[in-house]
Amino acid sequence: MEFLDEEAFEPGGAPAASRGRGPRDAHRQILARRLVALGAVILILILIVLGVKGCLNARKQRGFENYASDLSSVVAQTKQLSSDFFTQLSSPGKLSELSFRAQISADAGTAEGLLTNAENLDTPDELKSSQSELVQSYELLRDGLAGIDSNMQDALSSDNAAAGKATNAIADYMRYFVARDVLFAQSQSQIDQVLSDQGIEVDGKPAKVPDSVFLPSDDWLDPLKVRTSLTAVAGTNAVSRGVHGTELVGTTVQPGDVALTAGTPATVSGNGPFRLEVQVTNGPDNEETNVLVVAEVTGGPETISGQATISKIVAGGTQTVAIPLKPAPPAGQELSVQVTVEPVAGETLTTNNTATYQVTFGG
What we know:
Elements: H1 16-90, H2 97-119, H3 128-155, H4 160-197, E1 201-202, E2 205-206, H5 223-230, H6 234-237, E3 246-254, E4 258-260, E5 266-268, E6 275-282, E7 288-298, E8 304-313, E9 318-324, E10 334-341, E11 354-361
Parallel strand pairs: 5-11
Antiparallel strand pairs: 1-2, 3-4, 3-6, 6-9, 7-8, 7-10, 10-11
Helix pairs in contact: 1-2, 2-3, 3-4, 4-5
């Protein structure tokens, strides 16, 4: 039949054109399937990456949240330690000397434990620098309480000279708490900023480190404040019955015999060497021994300190003690001279134990 093209079919009945397109279609189908499979693999990889990233982000966020929570716990314990320590120091009640010292030692041990807790915080990398300052602040807290503890036995001694020196040392160790509070505040500010940058929240609010001020008042930097508190300890207060107390009667500067009056500036002529002569009177009931008198000159290039001990003052008696001022105070400059009679064991009234004068030397 003429309408049938002989080349249109080949033996086997398959159209030549169809046979020619078959391998290309199969190739395209295989390629398409491969592309679909590749797309699926890529999609799966993307999902895996997103999933891993999401898990890492969640883990990172939990790390910040846990750090903030654990640090808040340490701060709460620090606040409690401060309250316990200074409440006890202010009002020891009827504790014996032995019990009082045991409590101070326990507080020092608590500070050591807080340092360990601070060191063991699981810290995110972004907070490493702030964490270092935080740990340093707790090292200062530990060292301050350890120093106070080591001086407490002498501070409670009936030897007034030894007690005075130990009390001064305790007041100096209180300064560790000032440095600790400053360093903690710096660390706190940095940590709060990082927590804010990371969007960390607690109970729907931005996470923040609680404030922590260990030293409640600068009054504790004054040895007289410390000594007054320690005289209330039962073991110290029971040295003997009756009234215990000393009073700063007057101060003069030699040479020149210049009498000093609080609130009235004085000028001392000459080039020195200068010394203070301090009159101290004793209460009516008890003889006192080893009464420590301390002087401090400030306002110049350096602080000038001196002290002397009155070996004995009979009940109702008065003694004068000389305190050399070395090195010589700078000439022509108004300086502040503070003189303090350290409270004796059992003394509770100390407002008359200290005086501050304004003095110009070599004028």
